[in-house]
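Quick bug: Molybdopterin molybdenumtransferase output formatted oddly.
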Amino acid sequence: MRNSFTGMVACDTALQLIAGCAAQFPVRVMRVPLADALGRCAAEDVHAVSARPEADISAMDGYAFAHAAMAAASGGLPVAGQTVAGDLPEPLASGFAQSVLTGARIPLGADCVMAKERMRLAENGRVMPDRALAEKGANIRRAGEEFPRGETLLARGTRLDWRHSALLACQGFTDVAVVAPVRVAVVSSGAELAVDAPDARADSNSPMLAALLREAGAEVVLHTVPSDSPEALSAALAEAWAEADVLVTTGGISVGQTDNVLDALRGLGAETLFRGVTIRPGKPLTVLTHRQRVAFCLPGNPGASAICAVVFLLPYIRAAMGDTSAPACIPGAVDFAFTAVAGTTHFIPVSCHAVAEGWRFSAVPTVGASDIIAFSRASALLRIDPETPAEVGQVRWALPLQPSGI
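Here's what came back:
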């Protein structure tokens, strides 16, 4: 049979082959302002240029003094001025206290700070503890206690979010080196996409895949070939792939008479990495390579296309953009039983319900690989392999459909 699925690979084999391709992706580095770095991955390790804090500072508004001097002064110590954050205070004169605000440097000679509300300022201008004297060293943030100069603040591959913006900004960084976004061309094809087709169909896969890829940080360009013509398809694929790092096709990858994507890509010089995966839905998934570029050929059925994109395409995109983190799967107890077909890995859309013990996974009703609405009702994908059937009450791990989790 033309373009048959003989020699399909298992799910884990496909993931390993894809990971190997991602490791060879020619990474591009760019510097961007911190405000534009969210969602990008650090292209290099980032080290602290100074300790934090750079010097001993006060942890609160209060008074700084030498502990021994305060302990020996029955009438308290006179106050010599005030230090605020940003000041470089003179050394503290012997036998004096100094007013300090939160974040202010501790003057040389002081080794204790007490909160203003725990001190009593007498009419003669002397300050003393209202009750017990704090311990020596109290309420002082020591230089470098958070991290020293040279500490690795960000490891290469860290996906940046608001927390890292604060960390970099506190060190005076205004921009950061990140991995440039992967350029993806999404090509949908088929005579049914023509507006004047007798049985015209709306293209739901392209908008879905574009949203999914852009959410992952990729740059996406959409192409449509409203025809089953092999010549028109080949020309469109050549044009799309010439300007992209990754080509994603949807539809035309099975074994029907109008399924011409595989032949067209081979005609452009692409070599097959694998042809078909033993999964359900999504069996037709095919990946090809050509000069360090990769083509992901997804099934045309929306449900199958979505599963293949989440499970196989997104890990490649993230890895190619420097993200070294593992997929953020979540544990939960399944409330249904399911046994996979022999030799086949199943991916089941599930809804997730918060219970006292954590999460409970329920199978979302679906009509099969063409289902679209099931994914709007689902929160995650549950993988079930033939050797590990799901049983009621069993704890399994599910892959969230949203990058932020459930």
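Actually, after a second look the formatting is fine. The helical segments are 11-23, 67-72, 162-169, 205-215, 230-242, 261-267, 302-320, 373-377. Closing.
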